[in-house]
């Protein structure tokens, strides 16, 4: 699918972090589950329940470290009232007890750095949905990272992307967070911050390739799936 049918805008004021509202367990599942979630969310947002022009968010940062395009650049969102034309939005697709993975944190950092490049010149400030309206979004875990400035740190494997509290694990914990920790211990969960790079129409600056797009791949390798818009 081509460009988003949403109205045009020129957000410059920063990036707003969101979550999905209910636990999805995507961190412990294959990346295909992230793509399926994104398709379901787009169908819900554009269906009779919402009737929006497109999925509400600009981007998604999945637990495996991929950035998936929603409305993308230069589009009004349906994400944060009072900031839909001034800020870009990124959802983590998490719920109240889902872990926010280091790969996910680094993906948001990569997205922020890219948006700050001269072609878009977006301010580097990162906010949470609850900074605009009274809401639980983006969840206490993600909002703690917003408040601490964790998303505003430079991206890269040398940076600390660990979430305080050992991913929120406690004695007796089970479920997705435990499975994710097991994957890290065995070395099977590695950071893959971008799916690749292409170009932005009308500019010659590099563009991080959204998950599933055609084009050269980065050292992280291609996204193992195909995203639809």
Give your account of this protein's structure.
With 229 residues, this protein is of the alpha/beta class. 21% of the residues lie in helices and 10% in strands. The chain has a single domain, classed as 3-Layer(aba) Sandwich (Lysozyme-like). A hairpin with a 6-residue loop joins strand 6 and strand 7. It starts with 14 loop residues before the first strand and ends in a 21-residue tail after the last strand. The C terminus is likely disordered.
- SS elements, strand count: 7
Q: Uncertain spans, ≥5 residues at pLDDT below 50?
A: 161-173, 183-229
Shape: globular
Tell me the strand percentage band: 5-15%
The pLDDT mean sits at 78
Strands in their spatial order, largest beta sheet: 3-2-4-1-5
Q: Can you tell me the number of structural domains?
A: 1
Characterize this entry briefly:
This protein is an alpha/beta fold. Helix content is 21%, strand content 10%.
Present the secondary structure layout.
Elements: E1 15-18, H1 31-46, E2 59-61, E3 67-69, E4 88-91, H2 102-115, E5 126-128, H3 140-148, H4 176-185, E6 197-199, E7 206-208
Parallel strand pairs: 1-4, 1-5, 2-4
Antiparallel strand pairs: 2-3, 6-7
């Amino acid at each position: 699918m081509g460009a988003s049918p949403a109205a045009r805008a020129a957000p410059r004021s920063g990036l707003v972090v969101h979550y999905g509202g209910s636990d999805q367990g995507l961190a412990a599942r294959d990346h295909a589950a992230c793509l399926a979630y994104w398709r379901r969310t787009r169908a819900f947002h554009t269906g009779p329940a919402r009737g929006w022009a497109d999925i509400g968010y600009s981007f998604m940062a999945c637990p495996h470290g991929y950035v998936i395009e929603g409305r993308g650049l230069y589009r009004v969102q349906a994400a944060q009232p009072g900031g839909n034309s001034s800020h870009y939005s990124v959802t983590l697709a998490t719920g109240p007890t889902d872990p926010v993975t280091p790969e996910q944190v680094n993906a948001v950092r990569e997205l922020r750095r890219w948006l700050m490049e001269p072609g878009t010149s977006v301010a580097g400030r990162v906010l949470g949905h609850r900074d605009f309206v009274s809401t639980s979004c983006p969840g206490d875990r993600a909002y703690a990272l917003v408040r601490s400035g964790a998303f505003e740190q430079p991206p890269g494997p040398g940076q600390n992307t660990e979430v305080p509290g050992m991913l929120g694990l406690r004695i007796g914990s089970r479920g997705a967070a435990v499975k994710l920790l097991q994957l890290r211990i065995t070395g099977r969960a590695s950071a893959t911050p971008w799916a690749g790079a292409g170009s932005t129409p009308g500019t010659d600056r590099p563009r991080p390739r959204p998950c599933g797009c055609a084009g050269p791949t980065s050292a992280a390798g291609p996204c193992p799936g195909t995203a639809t818009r």
